[in-house]
Design brief:
The chain is an all-alpha fold. The protein has one domain. The N and C termini lie far apart (40 Å). The chain has helices spanning 3-15, 18-22, 26-40, 45-57, 59-68, 70-73. Helix 3 (26-40) runs antiparallel to helix 4. It contains 6 helices and no strands.
Length: 79
């Protein structure tokens, strides 16, 4: 995967719906991310395959990034 595609992917993750991402199991999360990302950023077949493997190897990190957004997604602001 190119650095540009990786940046686009992480930008996509950081702006995706928190509740949606956290409600999915690993397999569903991977499928949802690949499908939704490829709607925004059309991928060639080999890019899609690379993205699927990349997401599979980074599911824990993706969940951590999304979980860190929960207070912000709910409108809470630190005091």
């Amino acid at each position: 995967m190119t650095p540009s595609l990786l940046r686009q992917f992480w930008h996509f993750v950081e702006h995706a719906q928190v509740a949606r991402l956290l409600s999915l199991d690993d397999r569903a999360l991977q499928g949802w991310l690949v499908t939704q990302f490829s709607h925004v950023y059309p991928l060639e077949h080999h890019q899609r395959s690379h993205l699927e493997r990349y997401i599979s190897s980074r599911l824990s990190l993706i969940r951590e990034v999304v979980s860190d957004r929960v207070p912000h997604a709910l409108g809470d602001r630190p005091s």
